[in-house]
């Protein structure tokens, strides 16, 4: 085997170890299992102090300070047309879009779910139209429907 072939073989081994395309960070909002690609998630945090931003859109809960970095907190409940949680306690799924960081406020965070070997199905027509507009597909899991969100669309407020 030539050096070039060995390099190719070893790089394929590395790629398969670092392939996150089948892994999603899962969380629940209003009891529904949702997810975003793991490579879009910077970190997951417990409830944080959020400074309100007057005159902002309803989906924008405010700003939080993450080790000196200002992060915009987005209520996924509001974005999906749901009422706020009664106790107000939300977990934070911090994502990056370009140079900015956003915290998606969710009810609870689950595990990283690996869906390799499963195929993503199109968004069902029966899903609420507002939800369909921010969803890229679904996976049928033993515990129910796993809805994959389109983070770019969720963070596009225009």
TrEMBL record:
Gene3D superfamilies found in the cross-reference section: CheA-289, Domain 4, SH3 Domains
GO cellular component term of the entry, any: cytosol
Segments forming domain CheW-like: 21-158
Record InterPro entries: CheW, CheW-like_dom_sf, CheW-lke_dom
GO biological process, one term: signal transduction
Pfam families named in the record: CheW (PF01584)
Superkingdom of source: Bacteria
PANTHER family: CHEMOTAXIS PROTEIN CHEW (PTHR22617:SF23), CHEMOTAXIS SENSOR HISTIDINE KINASE-RELATED (PTHR22617)
UniProt protein name: Chemotaxis protein CheW
Gene name of the encoded protein: cheW
